[in-house]
Specification:
Layout lengths: L1 E5 L3 H12 L3 E6 L2 H10 L3 E4 L5 H7 L6 E4 L4 H14 L4 E5 L3 H5 L13 E3 L1 H14 L5 E5 L4 E7 L21 E8 L2 E3 L12 E7 L3 H7 L9 E5 L3 H11 L4 E6 L2 H10 L4 E4 L5 H6 L7 E4 L4 H13 L5 E4 L6 H6 L4 E3 L1 H13 L6 E4 L5 E7 L20 E8 L2 E3 L12 E7 L3 H11 L4
Parallel strand pairs: 1-2, 1-4, 2-3, 4-5, 5-6, 12-13, 12-15, 13-14, 15-16, 16-17
Antiparallel strand pairs: 7-8, 8-11, 9-10, 9-11, 18-19, 19-22, 20-21, 20-22
Helix pairs in contact: 1-13, 6-8, 6-13
């Protein structure tokens, strides 16, 4: 597959890097010569210095022979123009555009088939808000990822020192735990695809895969009380904070939003009905104490200053907030802030990368979710009759080292598999794989399976 990526910022760079590892033919177009040099030094792709809004540059990149164009610059207008030219330069290319301006999203008719005909619009803020709302479904989780329209949940949980699971081998899980499978363990910088002999240690980030109805079993497994979310404080009244507040405005969750710009507070108050708008500074300790942050279930820190976001989140935790969710823009910051005690990090760029990768792999791979630390992925495949991995026990399937089947979806039935289970034709498989195992897994499935 040949892919043209316009823009070598963090989104474009990460997508190019991932597709290159998977041996796709990737061309990156970028106007900044420094970013071009970085691309050439780090990734095995073709890099072209120029503008993706130039038809001649698109021709040089091989637009007529390309399957997909991803317009991922920081300029919505440049992304739209690039897709406009792609529409007229070739008939069959798939067009993906990153669009940040909410005003464009209100007028989606410009993306319709008889005009720009853009196949996928990525709005990083809306993708990030969707991630946050999933987190609020399972407030004690560090990460929640949906598969099969939410019927399967991948839940990341940090294990506390006093957890009953500390030191327990995975093979000792009892009957009610058979509806739960540990797919990945992140231990410091190490990412583990576990076997039954692995044990869980304090501070491990453990990813469980389970059916939506089995979530109460995860509560019991971790000795957690199942409590409804009742109080949320949002710090930062920008577009992301407003979008999250708007989503919570129609619920029974007691929600407040803190914004230090008094004029913006008036605008927020006009747009929100039940959410309480507060004019104040999230870095002000006395102010947070007056607003009883100690009683808050989730403190979502969404300002445009990521250094301030880290400070406010640490302050909120110190004052007793049960959980903090922190917006971080730079992907390189994410491992660092996780290491200093930030509960959960959300990133508009990471949300955009995940959505774009899912769409690019569609037709071959149904869904993909890079996991925390980017050292592993959860991937959804579909098995066909042509595969010789069907109709034999999983224990006899020769998956690459560092890959494990986390779930089998067979029509309405969801199976959390064990060694005796078999894969049937047309089953959907959710597979966890280390980054280095993914090319082997892709090769195995390319030979053995066909994808829709």
């Amino acid at each position: 597959m040949k892919v043209i990526i316009i823009g070598a910022g963090e989104v474009g760079f990460n997508i190019a890097q991932r597709l290159s590892v998977e041996n796709h033919d990737v061309v990156v177009i970028e106007t900044d010569p420094n970013k071009i040099r970085q691309i050439q030094n780090v990734i095995d792709v073709q890099a072209i210095l120029g503008s993706g809004t130039s038809p001649s540059v698109l021709h040089e990149a091989g637009i007529k022979e390309s399957d997909i164009i991803v317009a991922a610059t920081d300029s919505d207008e440049a992304n739209l123009i690039a897709c406009f030219y792609a529409q007229h330069l070739t008939d069959y290319i798939t067009k993906i555009a990153r669009i940040k301006n909410p005003d464009y999203m209100k007028h989606r008719e410009i993306f319709r088939q008889d005009f720009l005909n853009i196949d996928l619009i990525i709005n990083p803020k809306s993708e990030m808000v969707a991630s946050m709302l999933r987190l609020m479904e399972v407030p004690w989780a560090s990460e929640v990822i949906d598969f099969v329209d939410g019927r399967i949940k991948l839940i990341g949980i940090t294990i506390k020192d006093n957890s009953p699971l500390v030191g327990q081998r995975l093979s000792t899980f009892n009957d009610y735990e058979r509806g739960i499978l540990v797919g990945v363990i992140v231990r410091g910088d190490q990412v583990i695809i576990p076997s039954g002999q692995d044990t869980i240690q304090p501070n491990d980030l453990v990813y469980y895969v389970t059916q939506r109805e089995q979530i109460p079993n995860v509560f019991r497994l971790l000795s957690l009380r199942e409590e409804e979310l009742s109080r949320v404080i949002i710090v930062g009244g920008g577009e992301t904070g407003l979008a999250l507040a708007t989503s919570l405005d129609s619920t029974n969750i007691n929600t407040k939003i803190i914004e230090k710009d008094s004029q913006r507070c008036l605008e927020l108050a006009e747009k929100l009905e039940k959410v309480v708008v507060l004019n104040g500074d999230g870095t002000d300790r006395e102010f947070l104490m007056e607003e009883n942050v100690a009683d808050v279930d989730i403190m979502a820190v969404m300002t445009g200053d990521e250094e301030n976001n880290v400070l406010i989140s640490l302050l909120g935790k110190a004052l007793g907030a049960k959980k903090t969710v922190t917006k971080i823009g730079k992907l390189s910051y994410i491992p660092l802030v996780s290491a200093i005690g930030i509960d959960t990090v959300v990133s508009p760029r990471l949300s955009a990368i995940r959505t774009i990768l899912q769409y690019i792999r569609k037709g071959k791979v149904i869904c993909v979710a890079p996991l925390k630390g980017e050292g592993a992925e959860a991937i959804e495949f579909e098995a066909l009759e042509t595969s010789d991995i069907v109709n034999i026990p999983l224990s006899r399937v020769k998956f690459p080292k560092g890959a494990i089947v986390g779930a089998i979806v067979r029509g309405e039935e969801i199976i959390i598999p064990r060694g005796h289970n078999m894969i049937k034709p047309h089953d959907h498989l959710i597979i966890f794989a280390l980054k280095e195992a993914i090319p082997k897994l892709e090769k195995l499935f390319t030979v053995k399976l066909e994808y829709f």
